[in-house]
Write a structure and sequence with these properties.
Elements (H helix, E strand, L loop, with lengths): L1 H29 L2 H10 L1 H16 L5 H10 L7 E4 L5 H5 L4 E5 L7 E3 L12 E7 L7 H11 E12 L6 H10 L2 E7 L5 E8 L14
Parallel strand pairs: 1-2, 1-4, 2-3, 4-5
Antiparallel strand pairs: 5-7, 6-7
Bound molecules: S-adenosyl-L-homocysteine (SAH).
The site of S-adenosyl-L-homocysteine (SAH) has 21 residues, from helix 2, helix 4 and strand 2.
């Protein structure tokens, strides 16, 4: 009997965790990056809950998107300097030889520099590769990607891995990226779980609205 009630309790807890994760995820997608910073600063427990839910979710996927980024970097020179926007537990930094600047709202690892990814403490043109792995959150995408553009060297690489279902109009998104100073180098839309997009910085972001940028 007690075995059954323990199992039931575990199942209920799983479902509650799932629901709270989805709720937090929704908040991150529908607010600005500053709202996200405030949310997690005011409620650090929410951040840890979010990460438990995130872990549980991606474990169900056939492949973790961050492994794709790891593979990409291992094929290229280890001398490339990387910025990981929304680094989570720093799996990327721990898996490659490159110097990786890790940015997130709360430090899950001592490697993390705590900041809002719309404003990272790096000089202009400081990195060769900028990464957003399941981290393009917030309604101020243009500002966030503008920040990635600022810290990237000319010709540098922007890698985006993002949940496939978030792309309503991929072509409009890629067109908007052109306006932000990024040309598409490759796109892998083959997974129904997540897309992997590779861009090269062609120049600074052009000002003005980029309407197709919505996710
Ligand atoms: N890139 C990691 C984690 C993805 S989860 C991986 O692939 O495993 C998304 C991460 O983005 C979370 O850790 C979340 O805290 C972070 N994040 C969301 N909004 C942010 C913001 N405004 N500034 C910095 N990090 C942010």
């Amino acid at each position: 009997r007690s075995g059954r009630s323990a199992a039931l309790r575990a199942r209920m807890e799983e479902r509650l965790l799932g629901a709270r994760f989805r709720y937090l995820n929704q908040q991150l997608y529908t607010g600005s990056s500053r709202d996200a910073a405030r949310l997690f600063r005011d409620d650090p427990a929410a951040f840890h809950l979010y990460h438990r839910g995130f872990e549980r979710q991606v474990r169900r996927w056939p492949e973790r998107p961050v492994q794709r980024i790891v593979r990409y970097l291992r094929r290229r020179p280890a001398s490339l300097v990387v910025a990981d926007f929304g680094c989570g537990d720093c799996t990327l930094a721990a898996s490659v030889k490159n110097q990786v600047h890790c940015f997130d709202l709360v430090p899950l690892s001592p490697r993390v520099t705590v900041c809002d990814m719309a404003k990272v403490p790096l000089a202009a043109e400081a990195v060769d590769v900028a990464v957003f792995c399941l981290a393009l959150m917030g309604t101020n995408l243009q500002e966030i990607l503008g920040e990635a553009n600022r810290v990237l060297k000319l010709g540098g690489t922007l890698l985006v891995a993002e949940v496939a279902s978030r792309f309503e109009d991929t072509r409009a998104f890629l067109r908007a990226m052109t306006q932000l100073g990024f040309k598409t180098v490759s796109k892998d839309l083959s997974s129904s779980y997540f897309y992997v997009l590779e861009f090269a910085k062609t120049g600074p972001a052009r000002p003005g609205p980029a309407p197709g940028l919505r996710l």
